[in-house]
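Re-run with default settings, no changes from the original entry. Doing this only to confirm the output is reproducible before filing.
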Amino acid sequence: EEFDNYLIKTKIPGIRGAPWCTDFKTWKIDKVFGPAVSEPEGELPAEPPYLYVAKIEVSDLDAMVSFLGTDAGKEFVKSWSVYIDPTAIFTMGHEI
């Protein structure tokens, strides 16, 4: 819960509330169910390979790219340091 509060207060505000950000949702992953592809490479992870997944919808991609070039944008990218294709693994989670 402490990390959830930290995440909401420090990681999300850099983008959430920006005029070009139409939606920003964050989910905490609880369980890995199975691969989303018929022939996965390697073994299915016993634990989720990530704790949080963020879905960001933007109305102006150029504005978002400009933001990512700022100091605040660089800090945001660093805070979400690992990018994994969420379609590669079926998971169960809850929105925070």
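The mean pLDDT is 71. Helices lie at 2-11, 61-68, 71-79.
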